[in-house]
């Protein structure tokens, strides 16, 4: 902003041109001459006064000279007549002499004043007196002397009077002359003065007129200049308003001000700086008009294209007269157009960032932060409305294995597909979030009741566990789902999340129970499991793990053909733990690799010892192996080296892998192929609980099938369908030349049915519990035959290190009902 002080120019300045300068000089000269005339006149006056004074002095002298002359003559006569003493004559002569000296002292000589006749007469008189004898003259002489002086004194007196008369006449003449001169001088002075005044007036008028004309010209120039300055000032004001507005808007854009208000500000700035009557910005569904409600229907005076990645292109249009838009207005509009585009871009990127901050990058589902935000809002609503709120925590089972086997890119595809299935299973109002890895959470803010939540969890599980086709290959995962419900006591979303997590964890630990609803008792159990996890890490180094062996026998004779190695955890002062309660933990935390290596070592060393002692010479040792072990680089070499070092043939070892594990490992895993080539057998454990169809069996790289114990149990219950299935499996195994072992035979009835169906090998409590090495060795030493109890079944523990039925039920996994597709 330019202040008036700077904008107001100085007024016009008076300058004289050459003509005016000459006139001014003449005027000055005129004034000087007037002054000179004045001085001259007063000098004349003085001269006249002095002359008058001198004339007067001369008259006075003449008068006194005459008087004193007469006095002297008189005294001289009286002296000569004896009337007065000589002294009186002398006194009168002294007076006259004095008078003549005074005249001389005043610059007028006695001669000038008196003339030669006077002086002759006086000299003659002086001579007479001087010759007169001193003292009073005698009377006879008086007359002679009187006659001697008389003509002289008369001449003197006469001359004195003439002098006086002449003097006076001259005086008058001079006076008249002086007066005339003075008068003439005055008249000339006055005439000159008047003409000087007239001339001065004319000149003054001329100068003044000139000055006024000049002033007017200068004033006009000044006004024009001021006008130009005002225009510059207004232009500068507009520029500064534009700069200021632009800076404010840029700041608001930078600080992520609400886009609608920023756009309003830009449109207002465009209207104000361009001076247009109305400005409209429209893009997509967004329209901003300034002034609000203005009519913008006419042909625009100026239009600029604005762009937005989301909405495409729009316009910034200015109504009014195109002529009225000056260069600055157009510049302002171009800048405003760019600001609109910038603001829209920033808004889009802010939205993108906010989306990225609240969503999972891989699946596009909500992330933890967004889930927690919605959860706390839903909690408030749920409390207010009294509607139940459920949170489902889903974790994909065996995803890590799938991920390892199909690669991370494949794992990502599986997660994306799982997210899609999850979203397709729930309602619009539900929130599906991914917390990372294979953990998903579903927030259901409006569920009529608990049974609906459980039904939903089942649907979710069904959707998630259906086969996935990744890069043309099939992959299988399952899901464990923990459910929790908010109630009045629910404090926070975090608490609810923890509860659902605990329930899920519990579902994961309980093999076969994939869905679990949170309860507070369960929480304590999970905490215990977590303790267990920590303790397991020290179990190996503290030598708390034991390998138990369960004989595998010929069903009809009970003759032992081999042993299955089953792990046990003997914790000091606590009951023995069986694999179902800690193997999943070891799988999760990765300890299974180390533990599995140790089991293999123990097994090979024990068998070597037994064989060295002439025992178990043709028996096999079946070791359960985790797919993680198989995936360890060098596993095959390790196993073969171990056997070699112990001097055992590879045929003495069978490794058991579950159906799931085999599928996860991919059928043609090189490690398995290498082991089989070397002579190690691969057994398909828990057959019937996985997804393989009977027809797929022939493609699996296995030498043996272990039919899951649930089949044996079902036979005991006289299930005709299961019977048929078992029969098919027996037939298939025989057709494919696969060894078949039936697990979990507990009763004679089961054994008999199995024998009827053609099965010949099996294991189970009917024959023998899993026992520690010494007990197993004892069994071998006593003949290597497992006697079947005469009363027809398993009744309890045969040895202290065997699990009780109840322990088996509680601590071992509950397997799902058999499902073999054909
Ligand atoms: P599995 O390989 O199917 O082992 C057979 C399971 O059935 C054993 O349970 C055994 O005690 C149990 N069993 C045997 N006969 C009967 C019976 O007549 N009735 C019943 N109800 N159960 C019977 P255990 O010892 O609890 O092992 C559970 C699972 O843990 C094993 O299933 C195996 O998959 C896994 N496992 C055991 N030891 C190891 C190991 O060293 N490494 C690995 N990776 N897994 C192991
Ligand atoms: Mg097994
Ligand atoms: Mg099994």
From TrEMBL:
Residues 798-808 have a biased composition (Low complexity). Residues 529-784 form the EAL domain. It comes from the Bacteria. InterPro entries: Biofilm_reg_signaling, EAL_dom, EAL_sf, GGDEF_dom, Nucleotide_cyclase, Rev_trsase/Diguanyl_cyclase. Residues 387-520 form the GGDEF domain. It holds the Pfam family EAL. The keyword Transmembrane applies. This is EAL domain-containing protein.
